[in-house]
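I'll show a typical protein example:
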Amino acid sequence: MFSFRRTLAACSLLIAAGSALAQDNLNVARYDNAGLLTYPADLYAWIQTAASVGSDYNENPIDVENPGTIGVVQMEPTAYKYFMEHGEYADGTMYLLSFYRPERKSDPQLQGFVQGDLVQREIHVIDKVRYPQTAGHAFFLYRGDTTTATALNEPDNVCVACHIPEGSFDGTFSQFYPDIRARLGLTQD
C-alpha cells in the first residue's frame, strides 16, 4: 500500500545518500606509491575557470612587448560540478594552472598574443583528509611537457604560504575565477 510518509522518507534518504556519494565519489586524484600525483590523462576535458596575461610569480611591472606568460586555470569537471552545486570544494578537488609563452607572430592574427609553447603546469589538490599538515592543500609542479611531478607539500612551502592568506575562498584565488566568484557572490579585489 502506498504511504506518502514512507515515500518521502525514502526520497530524503536517497537525496542524503546521493550528497554523501557525490563527496565520496570525487576520488579523481590518483597517486603513485611515492605519494606523487599521477598526471591526469583527461586534461582536455577540464573546465576553464580563468585566464591571465603577465601574472607570473615576480614583482616586475608588465611590459606590453614582453608580457610574461599566459596563464590558463582549469578545474577537474567532477569537482567543478560539485562546487557549483554545493558552493564548497570536495576533498579531491583539482585545479590546473598552465603557463604558456606568449606568441605574437601567428597568421592570420592581427594583433595581440596567443598561447605559444607550454612552459609548465601546476596542479593544486584540495583535500583536507589527505593533506592536513598543509591546511588541506597540495601542489604538484610539471615542468615543460613532462608528466612527472615535483611535489611542493611541506607545511612551509611557498604555494601554501601564499594561497592560504591571499586566496579569497578556501586557499584558492577564486577572486580571479569569474564563474567561481559569481557562485560565491564575491567581488574581484
Remarks:
- The CA atoms of residues 1 and 139 lie 55 Å apart.
- The first strand starts at residue 47 and ends at 53.
- Residues 29-184 form a domain with the Chalcone isomerase fold (CATH 3.50.70.20).
